[in-house]
Amino acid sequence: MRKPHSLILAAFGMALLVGCQETPENKKAKKEIKEASDATAKALHAQKEEYKKKAEEQLAKLDDTLKEYKEKASKAKDEAKVKMDQEIARLSEQRDKVRDKLKGVGGDSKEAWEEIKKGLDKATDELKDALDKAKKSFE
Known about the structure:
- The protein has 4 helices and no strands.
- The protein is an all-alpha fold.
- It starts with a helix and ends with a helix.
């Protein structure tokens, strides 16, 4: 009675081994999956770089604006100067937060990138709002 079970088990094992061998179809499928994965990673990298470039351009414009504000604040007197300096400090702090978040853009997964991008978008929007509010003080 033991022999039939052993034979069945051995036959099942052989069938399993034969089924797990790499076939040309398996090789082709693996190659296609790798190529698709590489293309996705390349596209994600390009998207990150484009986003980073645009964010850096916006930060450069903000730096120019802050420079103008500092010049105006240096010419202001008393309470107006104090308020302008406070506004400049607040904007500089928010700008630095955006810069720090931008440094986090790297080789993360797509899901992590989406979270980073969401945080960057929020920080950038907050900075733009603050800049619009501050603009009134410097006109």
